[in-house]
Amino acid sequence: MKKFCLLFLLLATFLFSPLFVSAQSQDINIQRAAANRVLANRYRPTLLKRFLKYVTYNSQSSETEQITPNQIATAKKLYEEIKAMGHNVQLTEHYYIFVEIPSNLPWQVPVLGFSGHYDVTPGIEGENVLSQVHYSYDGNAIQLAQNRVLDPAEPANAYLATQKGKTIVTSDGNTILGADDKAGVSILMTFLETLAQHPEKKHGPIQIVLAPNEDVGRAAEFVEETPYRPEIAFDFDGGSNGRVIIENFNARQEIFTVTGKPGHQSYAATNGYKNSVLPTAVLVTNICRLERLPDQSSDRQGYAEPHHISHPDGKVYITEVDYRLRGYDAKKMNEWEYNTDSISRKVAEQFNVSIQRRTIKNYSNVGECSHPQALQVTQNAGRHAEVELNIESARAGTTAAMFVTKGLVGAYTIFTGQNNPHAYTEWLSEEDMFKSYLMALQLTDEVAGLR
Ligand SMILES: [Zn+2]
Fold it and tell me: 387-440 pLDDT, tens per residue?
C-alpha cells in the first residue's frame, strides 16, 4: 500500500510538473500544425485559382484620383465574395474592406489582425492582365512580349533560379502581373474561406482589413473609419523566400522655415532687409554635422537629408528646408530634433531672422510598437508550420508603418510570394504564396495560445 502511494505521488508530481505540461502542449502544437498542413494542402489549388482570377481585376490606383473606378469595382467584388462566405464584412465610405470574426475560444486572447491591399501600382500597364502559369518551371530564361526577358541568370533574379520544378506565374509581358498585392489578397481571402468552411478551427478574435491606394502611399489615409484595432498584427504584402520584416525606419519630415525681412537690397543698411538664404545655408551646414547623409548610411545607421529647399509662394525672404530624417531609433531622432533646435536658435540670433521647425511623422518603426510577443509568435509559427523564415529589417517604410502613425499596433510584413514588383517581369512563386497562407493559419493558432 505504501509502495502504491509513493508511486501515485510520483505520477501526480510528474503529471503536474512544468516539464510534463510543456511536453504536452508541445505535442498539441505539433498535432495542430500537422492538421494545418493537411487543411492548407486541400486549399492550395483554390489559392492559385483565386490569384489567377484576381489578377484579371484591374485595380490600379492613381496619383491624382481619390479612388479609381477600377478599385471601386474590385472592392465591391471582394466584398460580395466575403459576404457570400457568411462573414461579417463592411465596405467603408473610402472603400476599405473590413472583416470581423468573433472568437470561438472560452478564454481571452489578443485580437489578431491581418492586412493587405487590393490596389495595384499605376506606374506601368495594368489593364487586361494575361497571366501565364509555368507549371514545373524548367529553370530557363522566360521570353515575354515586347522582348522582355525574365532571366534567372541575372543577379536580381537569383531567387527565380531556385524555382526549377516549381510553379511560377508571370504576365505575358505586356502588363504588370499584380502579385503586389493580389498574392496577399488571395491568401487572406482563402484564409477567410477556410475559416468559414471549418468552424471547428479554434481561434481568438480576428480582424482583417484590405486597403485601397497602397501603391500611391495612401493605404493608411482613412483606415480609422474601419474598426480595425488589432493587438497583434501582420501585413501580407511582403516578398518571397520566407521574408518577414519585423522593423523599419521611422520617417519624419522636418521643415525649417527661415524668415528674413523683405525690402530692396540696395537700402538694406536702413530698411531692415534680411536675406533668408545665407542663414539657411549656415543652418544646413551645422545640422549636417549631427547625422549621416544618405550616402554615408548603411545597415542599422540612420540618416538626415536636406531633401529640398524652396521659397514658399515665391517669397524669397522666406526659405524652407525640407529635411528627411530616417532611422530605427525614435529616441535618437528626438535627440536630433532637440539638437537642431539649439542650432537654429543660435543661427536665428546670429542673422537676426526667425527660424521655425515643424515635424511631420510619415511613418514609424513597427518594431518599436508591436505586440511584445510578436517575434516569439512569428518564430513559433514558422517552426510549427515548417516554413523557414528570414527575419529582416527594412531600411524604408512598410504599409504597417503608415498604419502605426494612425495609432495602430506595429505589424510585421509577411512574405507572399511576390517578386520584382512594379515591373513587367513581376512573377509569383506559387509555393511561397502557399507557405504564406499556411503561416496565416499557424499564426492564428499561435495567437490563440497566448493566454
Ligand atoms: Zn504592396
Answer: 999 999 999 888 899 999 999 999 999 999 999 999 999 999 999 999 999 999
Same domain, 73 and 100: yes
The environment of the single-atom ion ligand 1, i.e. residues with CB closer than 5 A, is 180-181, 237
CA 180 – ligand 1 centroid, Å: 5
Intra-chain end-to-end CA distance of the chain, in Å: 41
* Alpha carbon of 23 to ligand 1 centroid (Å): 40
Query: 131, 142 in Cβ contact below 8 A?
Result: no
Could you give the number of structural domains in the chain? Answer: 2
Distance between Cα 165 and ligand 1 center (Å): 27
User: What is the Cα–Cα distance from 10 to 12, expressed in whole angstroms?
Assistant: 6
Same domain, 76 and 188: yes
- Contact at 8 Å (CB) between 403 and 96? no
What distance in Å separates the CA atoms of residue 375 and residue 367, rounded to the nearest whole number?
9
Among candidate residues 309, 339, 363, the one where a domain is terminated: 363
Whole-number Å distance, alpha carbon 304 to ligand 1 midpoint, is 26
Is residue 267 within 8 Å of 261, Cβ to Cβ? no
Q: 4 — phi, psi (to 5°)? A: -60, -45
Q: Which domain holds residue 302?
A: 251-363
Q: Tell me, yes or no, whether 272 lies in a domain.
A: yes
Distance 116 CA to ligand 1 centre (A): 8
CA 71–ligand 1 middle distance (angstroms): 15
Give the pLDDT confidence of 59-86 residue by residue, as tens digits. Answer: 999 999 999 999 999 999 999 999 999 9
Distance 237 CA to ligand 1 centre (A): 5
Within 10 angstroms of residue 167's Cβ, the number of other Cβ atoms is 18
Q: Is 315 within 8 Å of 292 (Cβ atoms)? A: no
Domain match, 411 and 288 both: no
The model's pLDDT over 220-236, given as tens digits with 9 standing for 90+, comes to: 999 999 999 999 999 99
Q: How far is the CA of 377 from the centre of ligand 1 (A)?
A: 23
The pair phi, psi for residue 71, each rounded to 5°, is: -65, -40
> If you measure from the C-alpha of residue 214 to the centroid of ligand 1, how many angstroms do you get, rounded to a whole number?
7
Distance 429 CA to ligand 1 centre (A): 15
Cα separation, 181 vs 211, in Å, equals: 10
- pTM exceeding 0.90: no
- For the record, the C-alpha cell of 99 comes out as 472583416
